[in-house]
Amino acid sequence: MAKKEKTAVVDEPKVFAVVRTAGKQYKVSAGTKISIDPVEGKPGDKITFSDVLMAGKTGGSEIKILAAGSKSLGVTVTGRLVAHKRDKKVLIFKKRLKGGYTKKQGHRQDKSDVIIESVSL
To answer: 25: domain range?
Structure first.
């Protein structure tokens, strides 16, 4: 039997960022697709996320993190708006025992799909 040669896997440094939009935080990197609360624009428009909470690089055994408190990091995150859609339906059901009261209601949240194009440190 022939022995298998071990190959070393070298991870390329990957840049990531944590952005805040509409009160929610998302960890993104280039090529990530996120579904966020609706933003204005047409599909194909570019979106720039200005509220970057944290950014860093991962790769191999080292991790570098830039963290910001109240100051700006100077990191820009850009993405492209893919589509506007509606999320899955959430059912709300209310019932009072011995009262004959029932109420069934549904809700679908509007969402926007965004693909992150670049995170530049």
So the answer is: 14-120
- So what's the pLDDT on residue 109? 96
For residue 65, give Cα distances in angstroms to 17, 56, 68. Answer: 9, 4, 10
Q: What is the spatial distance between Cα 70 and Cα 75, in angstroms, rounded to a whole number?
A: 14
Q: Which of 11-20, 30-39, 104-113 has the lowest mean pLDDT?
A: 11-20
CA–CA distances in Å: residue 75 to residues 15, 18, 40: 11, 10, 22
d(CA 94, CA 105): 9
Residue 55 in tokens: 């950014």
* pLDDT reading at 40 higher than 90: yes
- The answer on pLDDT for 68 being more than 70 is no
Q: Give the count of domains, the chain.
A: 1
Q: What is the mean predicted confidence (pLDDT) over 69-97? A: 90
